[in-house]
Amino acid sequence: MLMTNYGGIPKEFSDLKNAKVVILPVPYDGTSTWVKGADKGPEAILEASANMELYDIESKSEIYTIGIHTAKPVTEKSSPEKMTDAVYKEAKKYVGKYYTVVIGGEHSVSFGTIKAHFEKYKNMCVLQIDAHSDLRPEYEGSKYNHACVMARTRELCRVVHVGIRSQCVEELPYIIRENIFYAHEIQNNNDWFEKAVERLTANVYITIDLDGLDPSIMPSTGTPEPGGVGWYQLISFLQKVYQKRNVVGFDVVELCPNKINTAPDFLASKLIYKMIGYKFK
User: Fold this and answer.
1) How far apart are CA 198 and CA 87, in angstroms?
2) Burial of residue 141, with CB atoms counted within 10 A of its CB: 0-12 exposed, 13-18 middle, 19 or more buried
């Protein structure tokens, strides 16, 4: 049975009229260049969420009681440009009224919701957790390819990149050194937390490409890279960001599910739940 309700949350807390959070699935995988399957990511996350304990030990709360509504998926797939516009229009319905969370889908799905948030919130920047900087001006004939999402975002606002460990030479002219925290520089220490937070503006949108995590815990991505961020380092950093800045929304993208190993699906679902909890702590 296809799960359409995050967490299997009772109707009392999943109905839009009672919700503070809207989850918007975008099952799109039109521009990925290696392992395909990110379009199955939202479904896998929702399925995993049904097996997740809804009591959160860390916050000592049942986070879902704030109200979490799962919207109908954005199904436009004819081109990355049209998909981006469809996500933007759908996100505009919710941004500012609800805490809006997009689940992908490949990373190209993020720009539409980033744009919607940028138009709503002044002094906003984007925090990117990712293995790749995604700063190509254009790739394979499109400016809205998954490899270009941060290039488009940089046309709107500042981007702070964390966990980067793969770039192409064409991206180097676009690197702003004080805004990038390479994976090899942040391994085995949290000394960089404060410095990274200082680079963030008052309002922050977070985009998490799951390949930013180490493939030992997140192998289910289209382009896995060794040497990524660990679970506890990631959530400790995110807690710091939520404490110090106003996180206006976020997305979690690039889950490429593997039926043999569902642990990464569960990780993605748990991460979303944790981040919602940090917002409404």
Assistant:
1) 30
2) exposed
**Domains contained in the chain, CATH given:** 6-279 (3.40.800.10)
Tell me the pLDDT tens digit for each residue of 228-272: 999 999 999 999 999 999 999 999 999 999 999 999 999 999 999
In the prediction, which pLDDT does 141 show?
84
Per the CB < 8 A criterion, the answer to whether 104 and 28 are in contact is: yes
Length of the chain: 281
User: Cα separation of 249 and 23, whole Å?
Assistant: 10
pTM, whole model, 2 decimals?
0.97
Distance (Å, whole) CA 248 – CA 220: 27
- Sequence-ordered strand ranges (E) for the chain: 21-26, 55-56, 61-62, 68-70, 99-104, 124-129, 159-164, 180-182, 203-209, 246-253
Q: Is the peptide bond before 105 cis (omega within 30 degrees of 0)?
A: yes
